[in-house]
# Entry
Amino acid sequence: MSRYLDMVAEPAHVKNLTASQLLQLADEIRHELITVLAKNGGHLGPNLGVVELTIALHRVFSTPKDKFVWDVSHQAYVHKLLTGRKDRFNTIRTTGGLNGFALRTESPHDCYGAGHAGTALSAALGMAAARDKRGSDEHVVCIFGDAALTNGISFEALNNIAHTTKRFIGILNDNEWSIAKNVGAISNYLNKLITNPRYNKLARDFESFVRRLPKGELALKLAHKAEGGVKGAITDVALRQTGSLVDADGRGGYGSPIIFEEMGLRYLGPIDGHDLPLLISTLEFARTCDQPIVIHLLTQKGKGFDAALKSPEKFHGTGPYDVSTGDSLPAKPGAPPMYQDVMGQTLVKLCQKDNTLVGITAAMPSGTGLKHLEKAMPDRYFDVGIAEEHAVIFAAGMATMGFHPVCAIYSSFLQRAYDCIHHDICLQDLPVTFCMDRAGLSANDGPTHHGLFDIAYLRCLPNLIAMAPKDEDELVDMMFTATHQRHPAFIRYPRGAAEGVPIKEEPKLLEIGKAEVIQNFSSNGKKKVALFGLGPMCAIARKAAIQLAAEGFDCAVINPRFTKPLDAGTHEFFGRAAEVVVTLEDHALMGGYGSAVLELFSEKGVTTPVVRIGWPDQFIEHASTQDELRKKYGLSVENTVAKVKAQFGEVPAQVTKLIEVV
Ligand SMILES: Cc1ncc(C[n+]2csc(CCOP(=O)(O)OP(=O)(O)O)c2C)c(N)n1
# Structure
């Protein structure tokens, strides 16, 4: 049976469908999302929640002339389906396929790329300002979630909108969830807007606007359908003083109770975000507004798929699952643990022995593994919202009062808090431990999420200690060691499964700045190669050493452990003893660990050639697996062996191409 979805080759076609056909289209989109993501994984829940919204947006506005700016843009799959990419939708998040986020290079309908939260309001305001300046008339629509409002940048933009433009359409997509349940005062506040009947009146000019539209009466009835001011109705702005000055949730009650109104934005809502006719009418109205407007939508994360409705956190971003049950494939018996779980469980154990330790996450309890601490010791656990800068400075504050915070933040999200690491943590030399998950590739997410720059951005800051474990047992040792320091300490480790080695009963304190020699030269008279494999690349160094030994080389393998302070003695010793040194890192080559080794060799006058294996100076695309990308860019055993041989003038034909790629 042919689908309406197949008839939508471009967004203009959405405008040709009747109201009932649009509803059918919504069902077809849901089916497509559920079946494709069952294979590819991805952000199912957020996208199921914006099906009607996205259809309504394309019904009312016209991209690429009009601009849709999606916060994080993990919820832009429906937009992709309606903007000429449905035929490739089954490739999403796979090698060579569609990216899981909005990407300017992927489509002219993606006017702004993202992957990190909180950027949409600022970007959209910039576009609106540019439009006003150049005198054009396109609409700029910014779609942001309730959790985006836990992020500082969102407020920096809100503060600026009314001063900057008269034409700005913000859509607050409120589903009460971040990845986990949304937290904090803003979330309480939005809940109050939703549930307090005091705010539930229909704006008079909106009402008269809707009445004039074809089927306007019907839309109005739908708007009024929720009784007693509960979810599903449209509210007005009630400019009145609340009874007491401070409400039960601790929020002050001055002036307008609608925070957006206080910031000079018109507020419409809350509106049922799954009511397509009502959404279309509301957006038609927003188009005509000559004042910035925020429309507050209520949506359900996972709408239309029971398993996702029941488990919003799991289905925020899921791996493959069974369509009939929603169950994920069971882990293979004996499979290694995930790094994030090792980190979370270790922190619980450390907290049980040390009362000064606390754990901090910026809205990522599952992704970082801090959920283990939340469950075991909730009084030692802080979720500060999507607020990495705040998380870091909050940790600094606690550290000044005798606590030792452990901040668990992905490597790429921590980039946002760079100034705080410099100004608040390192400059004051405060004892805070940073556990940087996803250091390395986040393969199917792509360049917004790869954590390939932290060694470079941290290495230049005084006072800090930076480490990378070769396996999960060493991660435990490093957490133990870091939490015993009186200085900032950073531990980087990759996404996903660990190496599968046993974890010792009791962790051991590592000597700061001391590398581990895994295999020394055997001094058998053969050509000497020293392989330094940082973190997960240690396994590749070991395998390369085995292969090189079989081909007539004498190899040493060293686990550097620390990128700061670098073990100068061990590096210099092997640097002088070897004929070729190889550094391997799951990090950008520029400014990374290999660069640190070159700096050291330059200082010490070590002239041995250094082959550096790592990520080249370009943004790395997404792919189905990490291995594919590592192979493509030469972070592999084969390429390591080939590069060593090339140093000795032996270039086997079959690997020549790989060397060129790198
Ligand atoms: C700077 C940053 N920190 C954390 C994340 C991880 N993250 C991705 S989506 C998300 C929650 C977004 O919630 P919301 O904005 O309400 O949108 P929803 O998924 O509920 O539609 C988080 C925390 C991120 N993308 N960027």
Remarks:
- Confidence is low (pLDDT under 50) at residues 225-246, 249-254.
